[in-house]
Amino acid sequence: MKATEMPVSKHVANFITKLVIIGLICAIVLPNFSMLTINDSLVTALVLALIAYAVGDLFILPAYGNPTATVADAVLSAVVIYIADLVVNGAMTLSALGWILAIGIIALGEWFFHRYLKITPAPVKEDMQ
User: Fold this and answer.
1) N or C: which terminal CB in the chain sees fewer CB atoms within 10 Å?
2) Short-list 104, 79, 101, 82, CA closest to 93
3) pLDDT bracket for residue 3 (50, 70, 90)
C-alpha cells in the first residue's frame, strides 16, 4: 500500500511514533551537549519529525529504500539541529560529541523505524477491498 493510500489514523500513529523517538533523543542529547534548553530541543524535535516524516518516510523510503532514507534523515537532522542552534543561540553550541551522538542515534532510530514502517501494514478499509 502506498503512503498516499494509508488511512489518516495510520499516518498519525506513525508520526507520533517518530516524534517520540526523535523527541527523546533530542531531549536527552541536545541540552547536555549544547546551550539548547529542553524546550528548544523539543521544538527542534517537532520540526525535525514533521519534515523527516513528510520527506523521508513518505517519499524517499518508498522510492529508494531504507539506506537512502536513513542517510537523508541523518542529513536532514544535522541541518535542522544546526539551524535551531543558530536561531536560538546565535552560534553553533553543540559539541563534537553531541553531534556524533545526536546524528548517530537518530540515524539508528530511523533505520529501525523504517523497518517498522515496511513490516507494519496499514489497515485496509472494508469498502476498499
Assistant:
1) C
2) 82
3) low
Q: What is the pLDDT of residues 22-45, one digit of tens each?
A: 999 999 999 999 999 999 999 999
pTM of the model: 0.87
User: How many CB atoms neighbour CB 39 within 10 A?
Assistant: 11
The Cα–Cα gap between 61 and 67 comes to: 8
Q: Rounded to an integer, what distance in angstroms lies between the CA atom of residue 30 and that of residue 102?
A: 7
